Amino acid sequence: MGLLGDTPARDYVSKLSLFNAFAEPELRQALASLELTRGVRVVDAGCGAGCALNWLWDAVKPDGLVVGFDLAAAHVRSARARVPVQTLVLQADLLRLPLRAGSVDLVWAVNTLNHLRDPLAGVRTLGMLLRPGGRIALGQSSLLPDMFFAWDARLERLTGEAVRQYYRDRYLLREQDLAGVRALVGTLRRAGLRHVTTHTYNIERISPVSVADEAYLLEAIFVGTWGERLRPYLAPEEFEALQDLCDPRSRGFALRRDDFHFLQTFTLAVGEAP
């Protein structure tokens, strides 16, 4: 079982699809920075619902190779339904990928490291797949997105603290347990990668938001992150105020406010095999 309770039976397809649609401009920008060319062999480790597999194929076709792996059966089914026949999608444990060592030009792993109990061991395993000069690109969105309550700084702070406490209780994690995820540069270097570079992209939205933005924020953040799960961690009046912001039927619905401001970071750290 993974750090966040991941098993082959877990299913994040809906949330992953919403996030990829929401963050597609920034994710594509990060991928473009790698300057992939036709003929490149790419592995998407933790491919999730498979959205990035199409972007990767567009960059390396027609004679490149893209292979996606994911532990969850539901993710593999979703990814297979999205991708062209030239792209292979397999169910596998990231620590036991059925690929020959030294056979890959790029490993793309986005929001994957945070699901591993030992991120360093995961990066070392992925590094073994690389040919000399091949690269690992580790992408990580902020573990807990930030919302600027420009109208209520106190509620902003209390909500952030409540979310963090919920995750600590649910997964029995200390903040130190996430060090390997936060320290992408150190993890790549300790795994033997060289020429490590990073770039952080701001996924920033203000009102009015697009349809894709609203779908992600409403379901994944307002309901999936700030919903009933936070009730035990907030005073009744604080929880009521938060729900007023999250309810599309409310006059105070956050996405209709002219001072709505959302910011989530996405960091891409890249290391090269010797």
What would you say this structure looks like, in words?
With 274 residues, this protein is α/β, with parallel strands linked by helices. It has two domains: 13-144 and 175-203 and 263-272, Rossmann fold; 146-170 and 206-262, no CATH class. It is built from ten helices and eight strands. It has helices at 13-22, 24-32, 51-60, 73-82, 119-127, 153-171, 179-182, 184-190, 211-223, 236-246; strands spanning 41-45, 65-70, 88-91, 104-110, 130-141, 146-148, 194-206, 261-272. Strands 1, 2, 3, 4, 5, 6, 7 and 8 form an eight-stranded mixed β-sheet that branches. The protein is globular.
Topology:
Blueprint lengths: L12 H10 L1 H9 L8 E5 L5 H10 L4 E6 L2 H10 L5 E4 L12 E7 L8 H9 L2 E12 L4 E3 L4 H19 L7 H4 L1 H7 L3 E13 L4 H13 L12 H11 L14 E12 L2
Parallel strand pairs: 1-2, 1-4, 2-3, 4-5
Antiparallel strand pairs: 5-8, 6-8, 7-8
Largest β sheet strand count, sense and barrel closure:
8 strands, mixed
> Judging by the overall fold, what is the CATH architecture of the largest domain?
3-Layer(aba) Sandwich
Shape: globular
Question: How many DSSP helices?
Answer: 10
Q: Could you say how many structural domains there are in total?
A: 2
Binned strand content: 15-25%
Radius of gyration: 19 Å
Segments where pLDDT lies below 50 for 5+ residues? none
Corresponding CATH superfamily of the largest domain: Vaccinia Virus protein VP39
- CATH C-level category of the largest domain: Alpha Beta
- Between the first and last Cα atoms, what is the distance in angstroms? 32 Å
SS content category: alpha/beta
Oligomeric state of the chains in view: single chain
**Percent in helix:** 25-40%
- Overall average pLDDT: 91
CATH topology label of the largest domain: Rossmann fold
Number of strands: 8
Written as H for each helix and E for each strand, in order along the chain, the element string is: HHEHEHEEHEEHHHEHHE
